[in-house]
Design a protein that fits this description.
InterPro entries: ClpP/crotonase-like_dom_sf (IPR029045), Enoyl-CoA_hyd/isom_CS (IPR018376), Enoyl-CoA_hydra/iso (IPR001753). GO terms for molecular function: (3S)-3-hydroxyacyl-CoA dehydrogenase (NAD+) activity; delta(3)-delta(2)-enoyl-CoA isomerase activity; enoyl-CoA hydratase activity. It comes from Gymnorhina tibicen (Australian magpie). This is Peroxisomal bifunctional enzyme. It catalyses: (2S,3S)-3-hydroxy-2-methylbutanoyl-CoA = (2E)-2-methylbut-2-enoyl-CoA + H2O; (3E,5Z)-octadienoyl-CoA = (2E,5Z)-octadienoyl-CoA; (3Z)-hexenoyl-CoA = (2E)-hexenoyl-CoA; (3E)-decenoyl-CoA = (2E)-decenoyl-CoA. The protein is an alpha/beta fold and 164 residues long. The protein has a single domain (2-162), classed as 2-enoyl-CoA Hydratase, Chain A, domain 1 (Alpha-Beta Complex). It is 43% helix and 16% strand. The protein has helices at residues 2-17, 52-61, 77-84, 111-119, 121-130, 136-142, 153-163, and strands at residues 24-27, 66-70, 73-75, 87-91, 95-97, 133-135, 147-149. The strands form two sheets. The chain has a four-stranded parallel beta sheet, sandwiched between helices. It has a three-stranded mixed beta sheet with strand order 3-5-6. Strand 1, helix 2 and strand 2 form a beta-alpha-beta unit.
């Protein structure tokens, strides 16, 4: 939603400007990272405000480490947000993917560029063209996430952020 995008932008800019902040952790709420955009908004008149692509670029360009704590699902735009982060930790039960293709759409926030850079072209093409969701353990093998945990993902992400 626009409110979430605006909150991400505001939070990132505030953290980058605050010298006492050493790292940033992005997480979802209620055990879900993000299922992506609400497709009902795609048919509405042109929205004004922030867009996902520039927010993901803002995350990626942060001079402070940004860690994604992925629980539940990171799908579509949610995975694109995670791809912009410098590090990704996933709960063992998390699933990730770019399912837009099943609706006849391509990922629109540079997921088609960031995913191949991270996991290689063959694996990324498979995910992008099929829309399949992969479990956290497979994401770890591919290099999509840096760590898979069975414990509290947020606490693990904070530990990683403190370490880096």
């Amino acid at each position: 939603s626009l409110a979430v995008l605006q909150a991400l932008e505001d939070g990132l800019k505030k953290a980058d400007a605050d010298p006492s902040v050493k790292a940033v952790m992005i997480c979802g709420e209620n055990g879900k990272f993000s299922a992506g955009a609400d497709i009902r908004g795609f048919s509405s008149p042109k929205r004004h405000g922030v867009a996902l692509g520039p927010i993901v670029s803002l995350i990626e360009s942060s001079e402070k480490p940004v860690v994604a704590a992925i629980e539940g699902v990171a799908l579509g735009g949610g995975l694109e947000v995670a791809l912009g982060c410098h590090y990704r930790i996933a709960h063992v039960k998390a699933r990730m993917g770019l399912p837009e293709v099943t609706l006849g759409l391509l990922p629109g926030a540079e997921g088609t560029q960031r995913l191949p850079r991270l996991i290689g072209v063959p694996a990324a093409l498979d995910m992008i063209t099929t829309g399949k969701h992969i479990p956290a353990t497979e994401a770890l093998k591919l290099g999509l996430v840096d760590e898979v945990v069975e414990e509290n993902t947020i606490e693990a992400a904070v530990r990683l952020a403190n370490k880096v």
